[in-house]
Amino acid sequence: MLAGLDPEQRAVATALHGPVCVLAGAGTGKTRAITHRIAYGVRSGVYQPAQVLAVTFTARAAGEMRGRLRQLGADGVQARTFHAAALRQLQYFWPRAVGGPVPQLLERKVQLVAEAAGRCGLRVQRTELRDLTAEIEWAKVTQTSPEDYPAAVAKSGREAPRDPAETAQVYRVYEETKSRRGNIDFEDVLLLTAAILEDRPDIAEQVRNQYRHFTVDEYQDVSPLQQRLLDQWTGPGGGASLCVVGDASQTIYSFTGATPDYLLNFRSRHPDATVVKLVRDYRSTPQVVHLANGLLAQARGEAARHRLELVSQREAGPEPVYTEYEDEPTEAETTARRIRDLLATGVRASEIAVLFRTNGQSEVYEQALADLGVPYQLKGAERFFERPEVRDAGVLLRGAARAAADPLTAGAPDLAGQVRAVLASRGFTPEPPAGSGAVRDRWESLAALVRLAEEFERTRTAEGLGTDLAAYVAELDARAAAQHAPAVEGVTLASLHAAKGLEWDAVFLVGLTEGTLPIIYAKTDEQIEEERRLLYVGVTRARKHLSLSWALSRSPGGRASRKPSRFMDGLRPGSSAPGARTGARGGRGGVEPGERSAARRVRGPVKCRVCDKPLTDAVERKLRRCEDCPSTMDEALYERLREWRARQAKKQGAPAYVVFTDATLMAIAEDVPAGRQELALISGVGAMKLDKYGAAVLSLCAGEEPEEDPDGVEDDGPVDPA
User: Fold this and answer.
1) Nearest to 30 by CA among 244, 309, 294, 304
2) Rounded-to-integer distance, Cα 390 and Cα 469, Å
3) Is 167 marked within a binding site?
4) Known binder of ligand: residue 25?
5) Rg (CA), the chain
6) Is 26 flagged in the annotation as binding?
7) Is 109 labelled as part of a ligand binding site?
8) How far, in Å, CA of 80 to CA of 658, rounded?
């Protein structure tokens, strides 16, 4: 149970008695750590499975947790969302605590909010209605009454979508109408459950006897209402049975009432708590992790003081790519072509994502991918198990599982073969149909069921368990109940918020301009910092390939008035860090060309060419300036050098950094050497590289294209007389 865990994960798994606080950075294996903790507690006899309740925030995450616990032999442990766990308790205890049937749950409150607005004499557009509904939800999870709503908005600095007094009026009428009709909404589920436990000590004691051990995932996202319910579940001094897991740097849902305060103050509330930090990043390459750490290094506020410095455990990968485009269509079309190129190298479409700040940005990328025939899926659209073709396939598979001898599956060599045979009767083929659209979407859904069968068979075989169609159908039913959908083979298009908890081999972060990220209505310091954390979440979704891009105008020919996001300042090539010093450059470090031999380098301390401060960091020494001192890099030259380097690396079949590192190319683009002596003085340009690449680099610096020899390697050309 503990063999595959790193030291910190093992510390989590063996800390069976609370209070325990796990500060887990992105990609550090937090789900692995907490599921092994629960399973270790069960297998060692410390926990009884029925006495463990693990709660998280999405049905998908709860389903994944249940699946992992089953594989670890911890059947019987309850893993649910806050709302699902509360609803079960409310339905069970309502007849005893209140009497009569449980009020009917409103699946969607929008229609009732619209009716309440009409009763208040307000005309509300559809988009305004959605915002108004979100405001009511925020008020309820922060336990704010209609009367107190205007003051609460003012105190929080929240940007209200309409006049707070009008919203309070609609909120009041909504609550009155809902109560009169005997309905409750999802927030009421938490409120009523907490109230019953507060008012009925006998029921509270029964719940606490049932559940002795609690685990809360994504604890940075709890709301005051959820914390109130959690306090009732654990009871006075209940920290002894509590384990919380979270990362304040991934708090991106404060607009819904979530707050990282409970995570950040956990040690204050529970002075005897065991605190474990997970910082070994198993997801992303060092290059991606370096960028993520750099983003947070510029952060401010309480969450920033508790940031985790991630340490990548993976081999080196490509550097993140920063690209500026003239307009949005060009950005989308070029992104789509780069995705097509990745697909050609063998990267699966389901391992690629395009992430944006708002859902309204998706359309241009949908069109660009469709034009190239690249399949995609829009996250947040129709749920997988609710698609007609998936429901139809489920009916067929259940029928085949029940049949003693189904002719469709006769002769199939394995489980996946049986599933293919059944789905073939509904048009599934081994190869996808050409193009995109509804036909391709239908095929992708069926293909996802086939891949799930292959994965299910591999897992069961490795565990020494049998596999048949009936067991597979049971797995499908369990996943459908938990909305734990398999991956569809298409490029994912999603908002940054919807991408939380997911990961891909390649991630394209697009539309990174001021006014979009940070969003234009983010005014306060804390709102700006949450926008920074949103970009951090996007960056840490990438395992290997990461692209960040922005467009200077919305449409072709438009005024180039946009600026790249401030969050990339000091991180993207050629930009200065926030608060960078300004002033005249100090020449070339006080040394004129020709004063040194090209074969010898200066020994001793290297000083910043701008502020004259001694440099110790390797990259700063290479650039001969502090990271936050102004850069004079020729960005166009830098891009030409990168393109040339990529061609060289491809011809040699080697990583790009083998030719020159990014830092060396940046130093070249800042110094723009005019001859071999100046080029030789740049750190990273040794004698061998000078001989091999010197002429080509100098040609690029002179604005010329380097000549290539017949073997595809640049010719050294004539020796520079200097």
Assistant:
1) 244
2) 16
3) no
4) yes
5) 29
6) yes
7) no
8) 49
